[in-house]
Amino acid sequence: MKVSRRDFAKIIGAGALGATTLTGAEAKESNESNLEKDSAIQTKKRTFPNGFLWGSATASYQVEGAFNEDGRTPSIWDTFSKMPGKTVNGATGDVSTDHYHRYQGDVQLMKALGVKTYRFSISWSRVFPDGTGKPNPKGLDFYNKLLDELLKNGIQPFATLYHWDLPQILQDKNGGWESRDTSEAFANYAGYVAEKLSDKINHFFTINEFGAFVELGYRIGIHAPGLKLPAGRFNQTRHHAVLGHGLAVQAIRAKAKKGTKIGLAENMAICCPVIETAEHIKAAEEATRQLNAQYMTVIQEGKYTDLYLANTGKDAPKYTDADLKTISSPLDFVGINIYTPTYIRADGSKQGFAVVPHPASYPHMASQWLTVGPEALYWGPRNVNKLWGEDEIYITENGCSSSDIPAADGKVYDTDRVMYLRNYLSHLQRATEDGVPIKGYFLWSLMDNFEWADGYTNRFGLHYVDYPTQKRTPKLSADFYKEVIKENRVV
Ligand code: PNW
Predict the structure, then answer these.
(1) Residue among 181, 165, 253, 173 at smallest CA distance from 213
(2) Which of 23, 114, 229, 355 is in Cβ range 3.0-4.6 Å of 234 for a Cys bridge?
(3) pLDDT for 126-170, tens place per residue?
(4) Is 167 helix (H, G, I), strand (E, B) or coil?
(5) All structural domains of the chain with their residue ranges
(6) What is the edge-to-edge ordering of all strands in the sheet holding 271-273?
(7) Which atom of ligand 1 is nearest to the CA of 451?
(8) Model pTM?
(9) Which of 264, 452, 460 to mutate to test the pocket of ligand 1 (most atoms within 8 A of CB)?
(10) CA gyration radius for the chain?
(11) Span 46-487: which CATH code?
(12) Any catalytic annotation for residue 209?
């Protein structure tokens, strides 16, 4: 008989329900001692520091909808998603989860979860419909209303200024981030928002994920604006993105209320030692510097590494010392978006490390790229602290896609997401216990939303969104996360 994997699981499950090899007394005794051990484990271990900031995250174009309301002009994602074949099923963010009109209900979802903080992003083209110049008087109204609602409900807002929705007009005029003019326009917009909103927002992120929007948008072409630039122009684009970040840090400092904190949220390569021995740990540290040379390392160290300059050769970016100084303007905190591990081994070479590629059988979640490596949540923040002395670190995104099909009772039992989160959080807890200064964690995402080129096919939410009715339903993972927050420990 051929037994499918599913049958096999059923047989095993049925066996466990139907039979036990322990006598009643033995079972009772073993249960009691296990319980005793368990409760000791649960009360003494796996807890997070007091005041740990549990949160969740979204981004403007992914949730807001209301694409043409109150003076908003198109962003590069409006244009790109409307080009044939760029997103799965031609999905766009025109409506998405309609958060622009449903934010009050969404804040109640947060409240029910018990999150202490919420990370969202601001749409540049709502605030400056021309990218620069005159602000739109209605542009900040929505964010003011959202902020009031959050504060009224005791939820601390963390705001991202650029989560990929560049005003289309700046792409048309400047070639987007290919031009230094865009870096300057970004700083101008960032300073304006900080001036207007820093009475309600204490933590600003300049840019979300250089490593995704520049690489996918300007080199590989699968994200907006869909370009595949040659190496020289491409490396210059990378440079303008980090320069935009640095100029924005300075503009926010100049315009925001005193005490406002500034950071960034980067999806660095998270270098994990293949085996946790001194030599591989050291190799993973060096790999962290080198594999993030074009973004996080230059921001932290104020120079491009020799290896990066040697590798890019004649295509290296053109820059001045003043640029490097701007790029490395001091930050108050660092956010790291962590989904996947990059495994590193010490290989005795001059550079001191080698990347170990994932074998074909390596497990991943619903998104092909989302390979599972819970220890990334340990090594990511630990390396950032060790290499650069960062002492206020946030995990600004972590989470996963899952097939998420509602069961007969309407609930999504996303045990795979719970498994993923429990394992990742165990390593986050391990890091806090080892003294790595991690202050908070933002789960991506509060609810299902527009997942860029994957459209609405890959769901990342704690809440299931039924798009035709816009009904939100907490998944099993929301119940799990609520307990984590309530208990301040891995459950
Ligand atoms: C991040 N990759 O994007 C973004 O910040 C979110 O907007 C997004 O929804 C979330 O992660 C889930 O994808 C990424 O291909 C997109 O490695 C792609 C990759 C990584 C991060």
Answers:
(1) 165
(2) 229
(3) 999 999 999 999 999 999 999 999 999 999 999 999 999 999 999
(4) strand
(5) 46-487
(6) 271-273, 342-345, 354-356
(7) 9
(8) 0.93
(9) 452
(10) 23
(11) 3.20.20.80
(12) yes
